[in-house]
């Protein structure tokens, strides 16, 4: 029996070996290397060297004003974008699930932003946000004040938020739509017998039933928003401006890793802390949300 068990285990690991190799090479390996770098001062140009500095890279964060600004910008972005994209996705999905005519075409139209490259979307919105762009022309036409969307520190991050809410909600809408079509009609019929109107059925039947899906959507949203990089990089040409208003943690990590000499180890320490923040935020979300459906 023991020989048979060993043979079965060997066969299983042989089948799993390609996946395990990829996991080790591209996931576990880089994570361990980042942890290694975070405790070293790294020199990559010329003669490569790794000087052990202990927790000095982590101590440096306390006096790094740009790191504090980047963290605060990222937190603001997460707090606003995740709830908004989740709510918008649910509303769009519920609207499409209501049996409207032409809902297949609306579904395609809503989902198109998700199929478009993030860089292309960002360039399109840069044109729209330009001082002579479409948004300011519309605002001026209806008598509202225009803004320097890309140059004003007070609105630059909000402009990125609006773009990402619009572009990411359709992806989560499709997830919600699939879950909505799985809700038994008998639940709505029972609610109608109790005298519930459309809003009450949505709040007391649809929303509770979708709790597991909402938990998944929020977790995916948290992970994605904490890693904001490309839109901020393109909007600010890699600087995080104006006045550090679009500087995010990932963009700062990029700057320290590839734009500043001798700070690769510090960038690795920032990346390590960011990973811990994402893990903690995900754990808290799972802990304080009830994932099981009520039905």
Automatic annotation (TrEMBL):
Residues 71-285 form the ABC transmembrane type-1 domain. It comes from the Bacteria. Its main location: membrane. The keyword Cytoplasm does not apply. InterPro entries: ABC_transporter_permease, MetI-like, MetI-like_sf. The chain crosses the membrane at residues 12-39, 75-96, 108-128, 157-179, 209-229, 264-284. It is found in: Cell membrane. Gene3D superfamilies: MetI-like. It is a multi-pass membrane protein. Keywords: Cell membrane, Membrane, Transmembrane, Transmembrane helix, Transport. PROSITE patterns: ABC_TM1. CDD domains: TM_PBP2 (cd06261). Belongs to the binding-protein-dependent transport system permease family. This is Sugar ABC transporter permease. It comes from Anoxybacteroides rupiense. The lineage of its organism: Bacteria, Bacillati, Bacillota, Bacilli, Bacillales.
């Amino acid at each position: 029996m023991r020989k048979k068990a060993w043979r079965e285990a060997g066969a299983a690991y042989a089948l799993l070996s390609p996946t395990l190799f990829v996991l080790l090479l591209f996931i576990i390996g880089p994570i361990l290397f980042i942890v290694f770098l975070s405790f070293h001062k790294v020199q990559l140009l010329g003669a490569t060297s790794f000087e052990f500095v202990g927790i000095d890279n982590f101590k440096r964060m306390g006096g790094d004003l740009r790191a504090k600004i980047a963290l605060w910008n990222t937190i603001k972005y997460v707090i606003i974008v995740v709830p908004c994209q989740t709510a918008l996705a649910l509303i769009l999905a519920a609207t499409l699930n209501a049996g409207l005519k032409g809902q297949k075409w609306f579904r395609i139209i809503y989902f198109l932003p998700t199929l478009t490259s993030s860089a292309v979307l960002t360039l399109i919105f840069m044109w729209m946000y330009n001082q002579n762009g479409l948004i300011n022309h519309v605002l001026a036409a209806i008598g509202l004040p225009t803004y320097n969307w890309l140059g004003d520190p007070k609105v630059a991050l909000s402009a990125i938020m609006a773009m990402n809410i619009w572009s990411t909600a359709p992806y989560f809408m499709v997830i919600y739509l699939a879950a909505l079509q799985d809700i038994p009609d008998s639940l709505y019929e029972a609610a109608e017998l109790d005298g519930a109107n459309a809003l009450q059925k949505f709040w007391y039947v649809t929303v509770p039933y979708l709790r597991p899906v909402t938990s998944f959507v929020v977790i995916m949203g948290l992970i994605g928003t904490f890693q904001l990089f490309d839109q901020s990089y393109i909007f600010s040409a890699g600087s995080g401006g104006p006045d550090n208003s679009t500087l995010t943690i990932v963009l700062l990590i990029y700057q320290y890793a590839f734009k500043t000499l001798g700070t690769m180890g510090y960038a690795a320490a920032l990346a390590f802390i960011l990973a811990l923040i994402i893990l903690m935020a995900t754990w808290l979300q799972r802990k304080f949300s009830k994932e099981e459906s009520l039905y």
